[in-house]
Design goal:
This protein has 252 residues and is mainly β. It has 5 helices and 20 strands. Strand 2 and strand 3 form a beta hairpin. The model has no long low-confidence stretch (mean pLDDT 94).
Amino acid sequence: MNKYNNTDSASNGPIRRTVSEASAGITLEDIKGKAFKGKVMLIKDPKGIKVAVTKELEVTGERVSDFVKDTGAIAGINGGGFYDPNGAGNGAFPDGLTVHNGEIVHNNVGNKSTDIVAFDKEGNLIVGQITADDVKKKNIQEAVSFLPTLIQDGKRGEFQDSRWGVAPRTAIGQKADGTIILVVIDGRQATWSWGAKMSDLYNLFKEYDAVNAANLDGGSSTELYYNGKVINKLWNWAGERYLPTAIVVMPE
């Protein structure tokens, strides 16, 4: 595992995909690579993707299950990064830019460029770097901040596996037809799944024909909640983590 972690090459062998569930507008697939297992959710309607923000911003975060229930969503994954100025470890402060319903609800970077995972009014996924001033200019409705960008306008993003290592991952992408691709990959569980490199994520999104894709917060935050339960294997021994944001899938 250490040898795999310290090389800049993705896991060898094809990624196996198996449809585990399908309903109106949503398809859930199990995925398996050489060193990881995970879930992929495909959502036909990109306008159904929203950012959920903790009700007690700068006080305490919420679990992904809480975000899904509070918003009436169908499913949800963990969202952007966060910081902990008071050492409380309760997920109260989202990092970078956070946008909901077209308004900036939290900003700790001023007008400096920050890596973004965002959706505009047409449901287009926007990745890469933007500033706070770009939110209105680009009609951004929903956004969180994290990195790296994996694919931007069909081209590979700039990232190195050696920086990111192997870990549980959460990521999001979009096909040319608008279909949203949510990815969660379990990790740090020796008898189940080691985790993925960024190049593994990149190759996975290319297999799903993504034209834009970006990494989200991972590690012990990695989670996919669907049909009233957590459907991936959490790395966090304490269960769901308290977070400032989530990305949720709203019903049509």
